[in-house]
Every structure is written in structure tokens, then in C-alpha cells.
Amino acid sequence: METKIHHTINDLINKLRTHQRADGSWRFCFETGVKTDAYMIILLKSLNHQDEELIKKLVKRLLSIQSTNGAWKEFYDEEEGNLSATIEAYFALLYSGYANENENHMIKAKTFIMKKGGLANAHDLTKVILSLTGQISWPNAFQVPIEFILLPRSAPISLYDLVGYARVHYVPILIASNMDFHLKTKETPNLSELLGGRHINDRPFDFSKSIIETIKREIKKLIYLPKQIRSLAFEQAKQFILKRIEPDGTLYSYFSATFLMIFALLSLGYSKTDPAIVNAINGLKTFVCKTKHGYHTENSTSTVWDTALISHSLQKAGVENFDPMIVKAGSYLLSRQQTKYGDWAFNNPNTPPGGWGFSDSNTINPDVDDTTAALRAIKELASNYGNFANSWSRGVHWVLSMQNNDGGWAAFERNTDNFIVTFIPIDEAERTFIDPSTTDLTGRTLEFLGNDVNLNVIYPQIRMGARWLVRNQEENGSWYGRWGICYIYGTWAAITGLRAVGISQNHPSITKGIDWLHSIQNKDGGWGESCYSDAHKTYVPLNASTPSQTAWALDALISVFDQPTPQINKGIEQLIQSVHKNSWETEYPTGAGLPGAFYIHYHSYRYIWPLLTLSNYRNKFLSQ
């Protein structure tokens, strides 16, 4: 097996060397389901933007991933299909002009939609798209008065209780819904027969209604006259958006937010040819990547994330820091360290910028995970070059400053965990609106601070983080991960983080976590978890092994044991086999966005995590 490990590591290094771009970055596709492709078609057709070649490419991919029953899925093992994805794809295909409702595959799609309850049962974001295009009236859930924008942070609830990525989606929605805006063209399909006999606002009563009433009461406390309040709110909402446009024209470098921004600006009277809208469309077009199923529109590029992780894994694999591949990657990352104060500074005003974002065009929205990934990648360069050393220091300081008061780390902002906002009646509000401490962020941050900054639980901040992880372990020994699928991801992050800061391999939390990983190992030696875990909030086996999840589980085991165990060696054998496979398991989405609605297949993961885990195995067990 030792020879296989060496060969596989060298093979992965050589493959990654050939994929590096001239600027030092790696640009792998950030592939999701149908949502962004469908929205791009809807956007281009709504604006009468003449790019038939792109529309045809996106149509081709949508058709290639339709299931035989007419539905579209978010992940391979999703039973029957996904209602919202099917509505979005069906609408986009009709709007494109390259499919008609009488074709057999479209009839099947329509039948599936009606079987699942029609448009009334769609995800709330899908309902927003349907409202913007005149298919339905605006649902009550989006009828929060625009004056909400003006509430001070001292109010029981305000816009700034939402995390930044939620704000840039919610503000455009508030603008368009308050303007009661709909954009229909002569080519817009009519989906009224898909309502399914239910009113679009059918929703059982819950506590969320009182949250809306609370917002309205707070608005009434404002001192301005009603007309002044409303015009001021619209202007402030517009300025909020314009101030967050990236150099490439996109809003916060997200496709979904930019899509909503365009419709919001149109609702405010912007022309379809206004530079802000034209630049936004051109920026979105740069998000198109090629997959095995054809061309796909990414929700954002993952260039910084991929480049940082790949550079780190290559160095773990033995590539020297003076290798041109590593130096070029470091220079690229150095150029993407952020220098602006973004929304993260609202709750962290006394810390200078120093973080990294996720995408190539991201300049104002750093996050903790990308920052620790970039810092891992430039650590050795920082030992030799002054400019990297300065960058390293600013980045480490920023990461430490982002710790929440509860001891954990979140992704984007400090202490943005006002649970009241999760009662706003939007699907998955708990996952969408707030940014609390999570296992994966806390664990991965501790792993970085322990292994790369040489901090341990002697330091109060580190001890607080470790205690947070111990407190938040599940009864069965696993941990829930927010940004990956899901319990394997969280358990890997927690165990490796605790071990890195000096927690004993015999600590009860560690032993419980290891026992849980052992209990879910597949017969073939690997690990695999279904995206259903994310939606059900309990572990659901995939009954197959994926490269990334197998690598995560193995990496956790390797961090604990002093010698390779039978479970580790069997897993390594399976991992080596998976590197050379091309199957649905190697393409299964293991990145998480929204439960039941948005999952990510990182094309880079089949290289990154196997390379890192095999290297960690070799460095620990074969170098003795």
C-alpha cells in the first residue's frame, strides 16, 4: 500500500500542476443544481438581452440532467425529484423558446409539479422569481414594509441582525415587493395552471406573524412623516445595494443576489440599458463554467477557496514552498487579501481588514474559512518574504478578532445570532438569516491556530473555542457541520481542531467522535453521507462512498491514532481507488448551501481532500 500512496500523491500533484492558471490560481467549477442556469435564462429573456448562444448552452445542460420522470433533482439520491428545481427548470425552458409544453419531457415535468402541489408548495426563493416575472402575486411573507431598512440597530430587530449575505438578498426583495413589481414580456410563459388550486399565501399560522407585527410597530416609532419615511427608505435601500457592487458589476459576487438586484433596480425606474444593469449581466456571464453535462452558471466562483486549499495540500504532499507553483499561488492569494472595511466590521469595528473572500471578484465580503485556508497556504512563504509576513500577521489578527462571545467562530460576521429574525416567515430562515458559531468553522479555525500558529488550550481564546466544540457535540458522538455534508464534515472539523490545540486523544469527546465514525464506515472502507442529512438534521447514510467524505473521516482518524488501524488502512485503500474513478459518487455534492434547495459539487474536492489525507497519512505513519 505504501507504493500506491506514493504513486497516488505524485499523480495528484502532477494533475494539479497542469490545471494551474497563469496568474497562479486554480479555477475549478462550483457546480450546483438547476437554479442559476434557470435564472440566467429567465434574466436574459426578461431583459430581451440577445445572447442566444448562451441560452442554448444552458438549455442543453438543463435537458441533460432532467430525470426520466420529468423532474429535476438537487442531488443523486433525492427521491422522485425536487419541486422547486423542477418549477424553475420548466419555466426557464418554456421561456427560452427551445422547448414547448407539448413535448413529452415537458408534459412529464408539468405532471410532477402538479403531483407535488404546484407553485404554492415551492420554496420561497422560487416564489420570489415567480413574483418578479408576474406568475403570482407577492406572498405575504415578503410584505415587510420597506421602512424596515430604517430601523436602528438598537431596535429589537433590524436589518443588521441579518448576516451580510442574507442582507444583500433580502434588500432587493424588499424593494421589488414594496413596489409590487412584476416584469412580463410578450414571451413570458403563463404558469397560472400550475397553482394547484391553492392560494399562494396559504401558510399555517405561526409565531412569525407576530415578528412582522413587531417590525411594523417599530417602524411607527420613526419620527418622520409617512411619505418622507417611505421615500427615505427606498433611497437608503438603493444606496445599500449600490455600495456593495463588486468591481465586476455583481452584488457581493453572488449570482442570486445580482439577479435580485437587477429586478430591484428596474422596479426603481432604472433602464434595462443602465450601466449598473449592463455591468451586472456582463459580470454574471463570467460565472459560466463547463461541466460534463455542458455549460453551467456558478452562483459564485470558488477561485480563492480552491487555490488556497490546493496550495496547502500540495505543500503537505511535499511540494517545496519555493516551487514556482506554490510561489505563483501565494502571489495570487496575496493579491486577493482584502483591504476594505465590509459589513463584517459592524460587529468588529476596531480590527483592520485582513481577511480573504471566497470568489475571485470578492473584495468586501471576507470569511473566516477562506482566511484560514489562505493563511495555511502562505505560511511558509511568510517565513521567507516580508510582504507575505505582513499579510500573514494581518490575517491571523483578523481571524482571532472574529471569535464570537460564546467561544465559537461563525463564517462571515461576529455575534450575528439574534434568533428572533429566524421567525421571519421565510423558508430556512435559521440557515439563511443568521450566522451563529458552527462546528465546522470553529473546528477548522482551531486546527489552523493549533497547527499553524502554535496556539493551544493554555490560551483563553483557544480554551473557549475547544469548550464550545465539546458543548455542541451530538449525543451520538458526531458534530453537525453547516457548510458541508454534514455530520461527517462537522465531526472531522471538530476532532482535528480539538487535537490540534492539544486535546488528548483519550478525551471523552474525541473517543465518542471516533466511535461514531467507526460505526458508519462502509463495507468498502469508505464513508458517504446523503444530502438528506442536511434537511433532516440527522445522519442519513448515502450507502456509497465519496472521495471527500472518505478523506474527511480518515483525516480525523489519522489525527487521533499513533499507528494506522485496520479501519484507517481499509479506508486508505478505498480512497486510492476513488481517485481514479469517474462515477456519480465522485460527483456527489458534499458542499451545503440551503437544506433541500442548494447543494454544491466542488470539482476541486476530488483532488484536494484525498491529496491532503494521503499526505497526512504518509507524513505521520510512513516517515518514521
Instruction: Work out the helix count.
Output: 25
Separation of the first and last Cα atoms: 16 Å
How are the strands ordered across the major sheet?
A: 1-5-4
CATH third-level topology of the largest domain: Glycosyltransferase
What's the architecture of the largest domain in CATH terms?
Alpha/alpha barrel
Based on CA atoms alone, the radius of gyration comes out at 24 Å
Task: State the shape.
Answer: globular
Number of domains: 3
Helix-strand pattern: HEHHHHHHHHHHEEHHHHHHHHHHHHHEEH
Parts with pLDDT < 50 across at least 5 consecutive residues: none
> In what range is the share of β-strand residues?
under 5%
Tell me, what is the CATH class of the largest domain?
Mainly Alpha
Number of strands: 5
Determine the fraction of residues in helical runs and give it as a percent range: 40-55%
Q: State the secondary-structure class.
A: mainly alpha
The whole-number mean of residue pLDDT values reads 94
Keywords: Isomerase, Repeat
Family: Belongs to the terpene cyclase/mutase family.
Domain Squalene cyclase C-terminal: 302-619
InterPro entries: Hopene-cyclase (IPR006400), SQ_cyclase_C (IPR032696), SQ_cyclase_N (IPR032697), Squalene_cyclase (IPR018333), Terpenoid_cyclase/PrenylTrfase (IPR008930)
Summarize the helices and strands and which ones pair or pack:
Layout (H helix, E strand, L loop, with lengths): L1 H18 L10 E2 L3 H12 L5 H13 L18 H14 L7 H12 L8 H9 L31 H15 L29 H13 L5 H17 L12 H13 L7 H11 L2 E4 L2 E4 L5 H14 L7 H13 L31 H15 L3 H16 L27 H4 L6 H13 L8 H12 L15 H14 L7 H12 L12 H5 L10 H14 L5 H14 L4 H4 L3 E4 L3 E5 L2 H18 L2
Antiparallel strand pairs: 1-5, 2-3, 4-5
Helix pairs in contact: 1-25, 2-3, 2-4, 3-4, 4-5, 7-9, 7-10, 10-11, 12-13, 12-14, 12-25, 13-14, 14-15, 14-17, 17-18, 17-19, 19-20, 19-22, 22-23, 22-25, 23-25
